[in-house]
Amino acid sequence: xxxxxxxxRSRRSERSRQAILAATRALISEVGYAKVSIEAIAxxxxxGKQTIYRWWPSKGxxxxxxxxxxxxxxxxxxxxxxxxxxxxxxxxxxLRATVAEFADPDFERPIRALQTEIVNDPDLAAQYRERLAGxxxxxxxxxxxxxxxxxxxxxxxxxxxxxxxxxxxxxQRWLHRTGPLTPEYADSLVELTLRAFxx
Amino acid sequence: xxxxxxxxRSRRSERSRQAILAATRALISEVGYAKVSIEAIAxxxxxGKQTIYRWWPSKGxxxxxxxxxxxxxxxxxxxxxxxxxxxxxxxxxxLRATVAEFADPDFERPIRALQTEIVNDPDLAAQYRERLAGxxxxxxxxxxxxxxxxxxxxxxxxxxxxxxxxxxxxxQRWLHRTGPLTPEYADSLVELTLRAFxx
Lengths: 199, 199
Known about the structure:
- Two copies of one chain form a homodimer.
- Chain A has 199 residues and is mainly alpha-helical.
- Chain A has two domains: 5-70, Tetracycline Repressor, domain 2 (Orthogonal Bundle), CATH 1.10.357; 87-196, Tetracycline Repressor, domain 2.
- The first copy, chain A, is 74% helix and 0% strand.
- In chain A, helix 1 (5-31) packs across helix 4 (59-70) and helix 4 (59-70) packs parallel to helix 7.
- The longest helix of chain A has 28 residues, at 122-149.
- Chains A and B meet through helix 6, helix 7, helix 8 and helix 9 of A and helix 6, helix 7, helix 8 and helix 9 of B.
- Chains A, B: Residues 14-74 form the HTH tetR-type domain.
């Protein structure tokens, strides 16, 4: 084995991995989750099916990683929420951005596919909690704790529950398509949550 | 055609329809939604595939009707929520029952299957809103209006939003398996919702 072979192979592997993840995202957007298959991903990414199965145990796992790859920070920095000292303004900014993402057809289709996988696959749900929702929730809770210290939120508020009240109604409205996803809706959720958990 | 032939045929049709719906529910509970097929339903119900396709356009539609059939009232009575005059007690009763259903493995598996179908099929989502969620929400809103008249809930509260705050967090926790579904959790949701929308 030459000294250059390993880096080359590693570069090729990374190129294949990225091609597979990009192909997965493209296919989900184009045909929807139900019609995406490992075969189609392999063909689109110009790799063999076995290459995919070597790295991922299931279609759900590839889909999940294709989303995680989108969020990989180039600089490895952690996530932090804005903290202007005004919890209502800061949460409205964050929730308006989330509502806008959910209302965006390009974004919503792959995320809907991911949600379906999560709902039906307890292992994937656990991965989602640990790798994606967990770090996001930690960042949100850090901001909520700052609001507690500033006396803008009840000191004994259950922060997991606060986050569920902020995001659960939005998730339900989006999943069931029961109402419009507007900036005003985002504002309403923030206002009622702060009323429910005020000191 | 004899005069008795039509009733006989109608009875046979109804028997087949009920057999198909029962087979659908049984299969979902046994093997999960992903592995239920029209073929398996037909085999289990002892009917031909064409009989199923004559009445339902898709697997999702059969599944949906198999749930609706469960809720068909023998006496055709409408749905109404308890109204003791105490909105907090009445909502806790209702939400504790819902939480218990979601925590019940026998119930949760087929309902999870239905949720998946709804999330991915806008037509089914519309049917769900009209035929199942709509009538339930009307009953809940009637109880909330009574609480508004009694001064226990803000007169200008958006009742759709009140229901989203009551049920959205529960849906999220259940779908993502992020926390326990307990009577105490049901109580917390009722209490925070009433705080958020108090007069």
